[in-house]
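User: Structure please.
Assistant: Input sequence and predicted structure:
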Amino acid sequence: MSAILAWTFDEFKRAENDKAVANTILVNFFERTSFRDQYFLHREDRTRIQWDESKRESDRLLEKARLQFHNTEELQTLEQLRGHIDETAPLFHRIVDNHRTLQTISGNKRRVYEELDRRLSSQLLLKAESVRDSATTLYEACSRRVDHEYQRLLIVTSVFALSVATLAILASLSLGNMIRRRLIPLHDGARIIAGGDLSHRIAFDTNDEFADLAQSINRMTDGLHAFTQRLEAEINEHERTEEKLEELNLDFVSFLENTSDFIYFKDKDSHFRFCSQTLANITGHTSWRDMVGKHDLEVFPKDTAQIYYEEELPIFREGIPLLNKVDPYYDAAGNPGWVSTNKWPLFDAEGNVIGLFGISRDITESKQAIDALRESESRFRTLANSAPVLIWMSGLDKLCNWFNKVWLEFTGHSMEQELDNGWTKGVHPEDLQRCLDTYVTAFDARQEFVMEYRLRRHDGEYRWLTDHGTPRFDEQGTFLGYIGSCVDVTESHIEHVQTQFTAQHDPLTHLPNRLLLEDRLQQLLSSAKRDKERAALLFVDLDRFKPINDSHGHDIGDRLLQEVAKRLQACVRESDTVARIGGDEFVILLPMVESPEDAKQVAEKIRAALNQPFNVATLTLHISSSTGVALYPEHGVSNEQLLKNADTAMYWAKESGRNEVMFYQPIMDKQ
């Protein structure tokens, strides 16, 4: 009997150890931070590290359990759990890798990875549910075996106690009253213990075999009492674990009940497994639980239900996700609306479609706004295409994204040719950089601008345009880009240029007049002062011009002056200025003169050129010139000083017999 009791106790301890391992596995998957991060879809590299650590720990525990378990049901459940965990690991790593890729991409490619992320997340949720169910099933199987072994141990203990009591009774009958007296405490104690009072202890006051038996019963009772206390503690721990699992489930239910999106899971027959409360509300259900097991045809109006059913057929048949589909819907009051829908297939371990996971978001307001915007844009484009001006628009990237019909007809180009920076190919090369600088500066400051530039017309002629650009803002004050209108001002521009030229040039020789000369002289002096350079001013007066003008008439005189202007220009550089400031008086500005000798060489070149005969009409005319030279800064640092001193030197050249070149000297002012 003692051997049976010992064997029963060993089986109970083995069941208890198996339950402890199962509990460790359950806690490892539902209390560790790594799994909670996985369950709530945290996608960070630190989560990957935590998951890998948890995975190694789970593999160690599963291997320990495999070697320790002997019960067939527990071993089968353990293998199912191992398979679910092994399938979960690569899913989790793909989610983390995909999320990291999402941080580096954009555009259409990003949307593909976002859809992959949602699909992987749904698969991970289902696999997590399988892991949870397997771990819970394993723990419950071990708990049942512990309860079973405990009951058997109690029965064997009770039988053992009763056997001891029976032996005591038989002994008392054979040995008489004395032995009966010694067995009464054993009998009573065994009866009390067998009744479930494990706190009772048999008293003894001798050192014989009866005392040894009492001590054995008391030690066995101590062991049973301690074991009972541990079992009660384990039961309490199991209840706490179940409470935590229930809390986890409550979190998921809270997510379903509070999300603003329409979220739902369906089985392979297109019946709802569960969904968000938002979806239940628009279908007239008090709770999302009321929708479980229902089909679209039982939930939605017939027309929309048919749309949903037909668009889900390829998902179930071919496992093809449905992405960014805009569908109509009606709320509980029958009001129409629109949702943006994404649906992904759910697969089992063999790759068979077992259901779908969907997320639909209410886009009614945004769609209505987009429709209104499109209508507004249509009206704007109709108006803009009818306007008699060239109109363009640009976006936040500073690139032009629309041109009206008048612009395209003006340039003879298509919309595709003008978009982005294509329009700049028609801008005159001399105006392009100034045009772009003006636009970019105003764009960065969000300010209006007005500029003129030449744009090539469809016939190849460049036309002057006045371009007025205005920043665009939405109702919330958000900057959207620019809109500009252009008017052809070629005629007025030419008139303005001609007027400006007439005001600054001699009408006979077309050389700069005194007004333009003084402006250029001022610029020359500022540049020379800044760069610490020498400059020269030559004052040229024609000799013997008045007799020719008087004897041959003003027409011959004017034509002679025109020829003189041409020879003067031929003697100087492009950077030099030749101006006519009087009847036969000319001034030449020479910037960047290295030495007085350079100025003298130019003056002598001019004197020699004017000494050559002039053929005017049928006449051969001879003149000469008297030239005065003033240097900056030696002979003056202002317009007035240089002109006055050069004029003084020219006067001295005439007084010295004409046809001379003389440099200004201060002594000339004293004589």
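The chain has 20 helices and 17 strands.
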